[in-house]
Every structure is written in C-alpha cells, then in structure tokens.
Amino acid sequence: MRRYLKLLPPAFGILLLVAIAFGLHGILAKVGLAEILAAFLATPVWDVIRALALLAASIGIMAAYDLPGVFFARRGGASPHLPYPSIGLASFCAYALSHVLGAAALTAAAIRLRFYAHWDVPPGGIARIVALSGSNFTLGVFTLMGVLLLADPYSVPLPGALAANLLRGLGLALLAVPLFYVLAARKRDAVVLLGKQIALPGSRIALAQIALSCLDICCACAILHAVLPAAPGLTYAHTLSLYLGAFAAGVLSGLPGGVGVFDSVLLLGLSAYLPAAEALGAILLFRVMYFLAPACLAGLCYAGHELWVYASRNRSS
Predict the structure, then answer these.
(1) Cα 273–278–282 angle (5° rounding)?
(2) CB 109 within 8 A of CB 123
C-alpha cells in the first residue's frame, strides 16, 4: 500500500500538467519563441532594478524563515544557542534549493537536517525547526487568501460566477485556520493528533510564523508584479491572488520548482489582462530572478559550507 501511496504525488503532478495543457492550447496557438524573448528583453530597466531591490529583501526574508522554528526548539530546551548567521545560512539554503529540487517539503527537511545536525541540535530540536518552517507557507497562503476574499472577493480568479457573500464566507473559513492555530498555541502546550502528541509553539511564535510567511509571499509577488507590463485592471491584489494559486499548485504537483504547473497557472490567469507573449516574457524573467539566481547562490553557499566542514574535520584528525 505504501508503495502505491508514494506514486500519488508524481501522478497528481502529471494529471495537473495534462489538465493545464488543454487550457493553454488556445492561448499559445499563435505565440512564437521570438515574441516571448522580445517581451523578455523589452522589460524597462527601472522595473528590473526595482525587482532586484525586492529580490534582495526577499533573500533576507528567506534567511529569517527558520527563526520561529529555532526559537521553538530553544524554548523546549532542544537546541543550543546558534548564531544568527548560521541560522540564516541553513534557512536560505533550504528555502532556495528546495524551490528547484522538487518535493519541497522533503528536500528542505533534508538540507535543514544536514546543517542543524552538524551544529549539534538534537533530533527533537530539528523536528521542531522542520515542522514550523514547513508549515509557514501554508499558514501564509490561508491568511492572505482569506484577507483577499474578504477585502476584494472578485480579485481571486475562481471558476464560475460565485456571489460575493459566498466568497467572503470562504475567506472567513480560510482565515479561521491560522486564527485557530494561534488560539490553540496560546492556550495549550500540545495537542493530540492521530494518537500522537504534537507540541505547540505558543501564540507569539505562531504569530511570527504567519507574519514572516505573509511578508515572504507578498515580497516574492511584488517581484513578479514589478516585471509585469502595466495592464488595465491588473492590480497588485490580482497578481497576488494569481501568484498564490500558481505557487500552491506548483508545490502540490511535487515537480522541481513547480515547473510547467506554476508557469501555466500564472499564464492562464494573466491571459485575461496581457497578451500571452508579454505574460510569458515576464514569467520567464521572474523565474530567472526569484528561482534560479537565489538557488545558484544557495548552491554555492551550501558547497562552501560542506568544504569548510570537510577541511575542519581533516584539521582536527
């Protein structure tokens, strides 16, 4: 049974790609590679500079992504005091590399295990760090999507014509998840789920998780919005709702960097505002800036750390 369950994520990713391919067929029928590259190169220099500044801020947020988990581990007495540069290195490498390696939850956990085990963090502490860091994005998506549905229901591109009150009700339901999490973390030290006791981080750390994740998602989306051509009706709220849906679909697909899925969902949503070639050019630029550049930097940092560890062991032996 377990062998078949392991096949579900890649099977889901393939089915999702097939479904999206049918939706993209009409949009891409008349778009050529030359048009896409022309749109890519036509991005104004100041828009690229603004996007790069936002990227620098985003990398800083990536480096802080593990802080709630580290504080949670430290509060439970399951972690030594780690310097912030070390936490930032592990956090950035796990975040940036998991984007391009695929199966983000597993790869990020493996990278964090490698770093924190080397720094003598016990298994219980690593488990707390991995659990909180892995849940940050989900909490942020529920919070931001809930706020968007409450504030501007029709900015979220849902299929079919749904009443505004129904969309706001959905927004309240989504917001109830992080709210329940914070209240539960405030009142209890642990909960029992499926027969297992799961420790809760406390309301302050839970709020820090949500705030950090929302800031991370909003900053990443701002990079995309900065490189998108101006279009009537395409506000930041619309871009954010499209980005949330596309990123969530990419993560659920289990494919490296959500390749194909993330881009396709974005393109389908942006087709209502922009010509396909212009939208693809902006998506391509965003991929290079937000996925490829940080992953290359994280790869160098990870390799440098491994070489330093190897050299230190040789000196001590």
Answers:
(1) 100
(2) no
pLDDT at residue 259 in the model: 58
User: Which helix H or strand E contains 196, and what residues bound it?
Assistant: strand 196-199
| Residue ranges per structural domain of the chain | 13-22+31-316
- DSSP characters over 115-138: HHHHTT--HHHHHHHHHHHHHHHH
- The per-residue pLDDT for range 71-124, each reduced to its tens digit, is 998 886 667 788 899 999 999 999 988 877 766 677 888 889 889 988 888 888
- Tokens 């591109």 -> residue: 157
Query: How would you label 112-139 residue by residue, b for 16+ Cβ within 10 Å and e otherwise?
Result: bbbbbeeeebeeebbbbbbbbbbbbbbb
The arithmetic mean of pLDDT across residues 150-176, rounded, is 74
Q: How far apart, in whole angstroms, are the C-alpha atoms of residue 63 and residue 84?
A: 9
How far is Cα 118 from Cα 112, in angstroms, rounded to an integer? 10
In this predicted structure, the answer to whether residue 5 has a pLDDT above a threshold of 50 is no
Cβ neighbours of residue 233 closer than 8 Å, sequence gap 6 or more: 273
Task: Evaluate whether 266 touches 243 at the Cβ level (below 8 Å).
Answer: yes
- Residue 30: per-residue pLDDT: 47
